[in-house]
Amino acid sequence: MTNYFPASSSHIQAWRPIKTIYKDPLGVADARSVAEEDLVAARTVYPNHQRETWTVKPNEGHRWFFKYAQRPDEVMWIKCFDTDTEVARRVPHSAFQDPSHTEDDWRESIEIRAMLFYGE
Fold this sequence. Notes:
Mean pLDDT: 90
Strand content: 35-45%
Shape: globular
Radius of gyration: 16 Å
Largest sheet: 3 strands, antiparallel
Number of helices: 0
Distance between the termini: 26 Å
Strand order of the largest sheet: 6-1-8
């Protein structure tokens, strides 16, 4: 995967629902439980461009979490990438289907992304 990030930077996002979420909540992985070998470069194809991202190979050792019935006043901060190899570099995240809420309203959310530059 091509590294588009300058030295000493982080890409983070703040994510929150617009209304309380029951259907297709957002799950996040404990970064310490996802080995670099479990990450595979993937391409997302849009009508007029393509983008690289990561996909995660299944592994019984991954620890995933989610907030049940997350409300709009409960913001989730997600580190998408960090150039520092001594810290948690990324937090894999994905929506998932909860079989007990398949007939509920669709998830609606908003996110803000930020680049942080630090160091010398």
